[in-house]
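Work Package 3 (structural annotation) set out to generate three-dimensional models for the target panel prioritized at the project kickoff. During this period the team completed the workflow that converts sequence records into discrete structure tokens, so that structures can be stored uniformly alongside our sequence database. As a representative example, we reproduce one entry of 202 residues exactly as it appears in the project archive.
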Amino acid sequence: MADHEDHEDFKPSMTPGYKPGAQKTAAELANLDAEDESLARWKASLGIVPGASGGDTSGPKVTVLTLELHSPTLPSGKKISFELSDTARLADTKKHPIAIKEDVGTFVCITFKVNHSIISGVRYIQVVKRAGVKVDKLEQMLGSYGPHPQGQAYSKDFDTDHSPSGMIARSGTYNVKSRVVDDDGNVYADFEWFFKLAKEWE
């Protein structure tokens, strides 16, 4: 049952009538309709310019690098961030969950690189459970991006959420499963982390 629930939780929402177009590399897109100036400006804003490298298209289109948790109430100098390559750090949150202050606004930010092609229909899905019961779900699109000309990473902030408050909310650990997936079901990141609620940031 749990596997079925997880599958349904992470199934991307589909827009009725929407059909993804054929995939093209950055180089192919850069040379498409090259005489259209407005289209050229739009493609340039995505990092798709003539001479763009098609790159190695055998790997994933997207590599997710970090996840950060932000809040305007965080003490100066305090940062909550994970390198997704640091699986030991993520796993450690099960024994030592991150402390999040109750009753404050928080939001997730991810950094990622686009390796080849142009991405669209890629979204971040986050499901929060407590004692095995789903208490929150976030699903948001990343937007449209192409490979950055200098190979730099992009960052994306998601909507602000409000942390629960009260003794009951503070009495357990919350399990978060995060996934970056596209409309075709290709998964670019899939990771798990844990947090607890506290009266103050720790």
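The chain has four helices and ten strands.
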